[in-house]
Amino acid sequence: MARLMQPSFAGGELASSLHARVDLVKYKTGAKLLRNFVIHPHGGVSNRPGLRWVGALREENRKSRLIPFVASSDDAYVLEFSHNHMRVYRNGALVVVPNTQNPYEIFTPWLEQDLPLLKFAQSNDILTVTHEDYSPHEIARYDHNDWRLSLVNFQPGLAPPATPTMVENVVGFTGPETVNQAIFYALTAVNAAGEESLISGALQLVNDLRYWPRNRIVIGWTAHNTATRYNVYKQDNGLWGLIGSTTELTFEDKNLKPNVSDGPPLGRNPFSGAGNNPRTVAFHQQRRFFASTISKPQSIFATNSGNYYNMSVAIPAKESDALEFAIASQKIQKIQHMVPLGELLVFTKSGEWKITGARDEVLSPSSLMAKPQSNYGSADHLAPIVIGSQIVFVQDKGDRVRDIGYDYSKDGYVGNDLTILAEHLFRRNAVVAWAYQQAPFSAIWCVMRDGTLRALTYMREHEVWGWTRHDTINGRVEDVCVVPEGEEDIPYFIVRRYINGTWRRYIERLGFHRFDTRSDCFYVDSGLSYNPAIRAVDIVGQNPSLVITMPPGHGYVIGDELEAETYTASATGERLDGDLRVSAVSGNFVGVQARDAQGNWANIPRLGSVWTGSEVIVRRKAQVLSGLGHLNGQKVVGLADGGVVGDDPNAPLVVTNGSITIPYKAARIHIGLPMTAEFESLELTAGEELTAGRMKSVLLARLRVERTAGIKMGPTFDLLQEHRPREFEDYDEMASLITGDIEVSPPPSTTYRGQVCVRQDLPLPVTMLGLIPDIDYGK
Fold first, then answer.
1. Which residues pair with 530 in a beta bridge?
2. What are the residues facing 147 on neighbouring strands?
3. Within a 10 A sphere around the Cβ of 658, how many other Cβ atoms?
């Protein structure tokens, strides 16, 4: 008999082609199956939280797209792009028109078939949207329910000034060498931010200023409403050159020679006309970059430095001018994405490039270099993800995920194939959407073509990357995005579910990984919670029983059963916890009773005069739950005050007319579709001893767990036994969440593999930190 230990599962699920590679480091931390588990960067695995139902799509018979909009770390939105419309979600709820229940939405030009190839880049409260069949658009946020769509106007933000006029044109001297010639003047306006307008109309005068001051020219102009100064230009052999700058409304030419190396901006819009709409967009070095039109698939365009709308250039070029250049390659490299990461990384259909200035300078018309880094290519519909100093991207076919990062030893960007050890999870399949959840576990959620999910836990600095698979009952996932909410980043999914004979499309968000008590656990899909928490205003000890002052609109009536939970005790340390019953109601004053030692309702003795500064949360218990119309006809399970309901096959909970009745009253209830998490270990090996090909029997299945309950273990999924602990609880109490080692003695079973299987099919948490089985080896 040997006692083995697998101290980590960070290697993730490994392909069957590696099941003999006991020499691999990843083998010792890998698994044969990790279904509906998420890998912790430090090695453990937890079953994923459930999917909380948010709402139905605007058009359930059409596909939509979810886009994150993060205004700040504590103010984020999910934008639902559908056929010609956009809706807004915030903190898990649909944003509505003020003073109504109508969803807030705006009209958009994009059709259902356009949505997968929309590209986005956000700067402050403005989202730039590109698609090769549409002019670039902006969506600006003014409030939760005020979003405005507009075309991007690629012109300076201030209009040109009026054409200058002649104030003086004095010809005070003429002689045999006098040559009166045409002189052309024009000017531009400059605002307080330093932005320069396009050039005005030209003024033509005739004079010979070599004999200044006897020959003089003074020009003037009307004031510009936003200008703080004016640049004055004069032509020299057909080229405009600067001759001066002034804050006045007149300017005297003292025979000034134009500086033709400093010309005025010339307006341009490289995206006008058919076939000239950019495919992708990014912000980098104070410029807005666009790339890849139908007519110029390898070209990159950038606005003026410090101005995201100005595409003007000057003759000759200035360092702050707009940019336009093409990647020089042996074959057409259609640009798919641009990612700013110190340098600008460009991802094409067949390769990866970095765009830098010469000698690490900033990008400018005189300082541009495009260097190829690798030749893998990226998928057009999947924007690369930045994680720390690494970029993770999907190759063109959608079945390979790679990372790329700068390597000082090679002075270039290199990376790895992250799917090589789990290629079975992508075989005859492809990633169609993905998003990165930084907190709490640094995981990338990948939506697959078949409607399932893959999760990659990735932390390159600790050499951690591992894959798990995910699914949901009666559902196919179609899209995902992630936004920060509270202490975690929350993935939002579009899920197409078969409900009561009809396919429907819902938005569902992943529950929080962190929880305080068993009653807070949320491990059901397409689920909803009943948690009617109200904070008591104060608690007054009166005869015949305690009175709680509730806020207006509490809705309590005599006979209601309540649960009280004290978060901040009274000044004298008094607490009010446990079950209560409403015995009297008078406005906001609610009299309550508690159960006595015999279990009967009785008045509560006077505790004190007033609980000044106390914080008590009160919840009304319920047994009939409504609002579940999105799950009509479905068998559901859940937790009611921490106890499992709906798991009895002889008495299933089926949603009828949007409601169910649970076996008992409870104050905190989570109801939804069941989900199952499964783990199967690889063949267990005893150190350096050759054990392959020998019969093995699992004598004792032992797991080191954290805050876990309700799991089953065994040598196969057909020989599972439920772990039923009861150490400190009374007989009628639910089992506590366990942290420590748990053991199950499975039925006798001898195989060549000697594996341990774990299943969690109850709506309860499981976190596995290590596997410590006792194995008996045969001959």
1. 669
2. 141
3. 13
190-238 per-position pLDDT tens digit: 999 888 999 999 999 998 888 788 888 999 999 999 999 999 999 999 9
Supply 217's token pair: 């020219």
Backbone angles phi, psi at 117, to 5 degrees: -105, 15
Contact 56, 473 (CB under 8 A): no
Residue 246's closest CA among 223, 216, 265, 267? Answer: 223
Q: What is the pLDDT of residues 537-568, one digit of tens each?
A: 877 766 667 788 889 999 999 999 999 887 66
DSSP SS3 for 366: coil
Q: How far is CA 12 from CA 425, 459, 743, in A?
A: 11, 13, 23
Q: Which residues are bridge partners to 663 per DSSP?
A: none
- Least confident residue range of 118-127, 290-299, 410-419, 607-616: 607-616
**Facing residues of 580 across strands?**
562
Residue 501 burial (CB < 10 Å; 0-12/13-18/19+)? Answer: exposed
Whether 501 and 464 have beta carbons less than 8 Å apart is answered as no
Q: What tokens appear for 567 in the block? A: 């978060």
Return the number of other C-beta atoms located less than 10 Å from residue 411's C-beta: 8
Neighbours of 120 (CB within 10 A): 19
3-class secondary structure for 560-589?
CEEEEEEEECCCCCCCCCEEEEEEEEECCE
**Which of 406, 294, 316, 427 has its CA nearest to residue 364?**
316
**Structure tokens belonging to residue 244:** 């001066």
- Helix, coil or strand: residue 242: strand
Measuring CA to CA, which residue among 10, 19, 64, 231 is closest to residue 682? 19
State how far the Cα of 737 lies from the Cα of 523, in Å rounded to an integer: 14
Instruction: Tell me the two tokens of residue 156.
Output: 């300076």
400: which residues sit within 8 A by CB, 6+ positions away? 376, 394, 417, 419, 426
Q: What are phi and psi of 688, to 5 degrees?
A: -90, -5
**Looking up tokens 């940019």, which residue turns up?**
323
Q: How far is CA 776 from CA 498, 693, 749, in A?
A: 46, 13, 11
Tens of pLDDT, residue by residue over 273-320, are 999 999 999 999 999 999 999 999 999 999 999 999 999 999 889 999
The strand ranges marked E within 108-258 are 119-123, 126-131, 134-143, 146-151, 165-171, 181-190, 203-207, 215-220, 229-236, 239-246, 250-253
Can you tell me whether residue 358 is helix, strand or coil? Answer: helix
Cis peptide bond prior to 98, omega within 30° of 0: no
- Give the list of residues 6+ apart from residue 105 with CB closer than 8 angstroms, or none: 58, 85, 86, 87, 88
Q: Is the dihedral of CA 110, 111, 117, 122 positive or negative?
A: positive
Residues 94/98/99/101 CA torsion (nearest 10 deg): -20
| Vertex 525: Cα angle to 519 and 526 (nearest 5) | 110
Q: Torsion angle of alpha carbons 510, 515, 521, 522, nearest 10°? A: -10
For the chain, the residue count is: 779
DSSP state of 687: T
Distance CA(26)–CA(512), nearest Å, equals: 29
What's the CA gap between 266 and 312, in Å, rounded? 5
Q: Is-above-0.90 flag for pTM?
A: yes
SS3 359: helix
What is the Cα 318 distance to its own chain's centre? 38
pLDDT band at 692 (very low <50, low <70, confident <90, very high): low
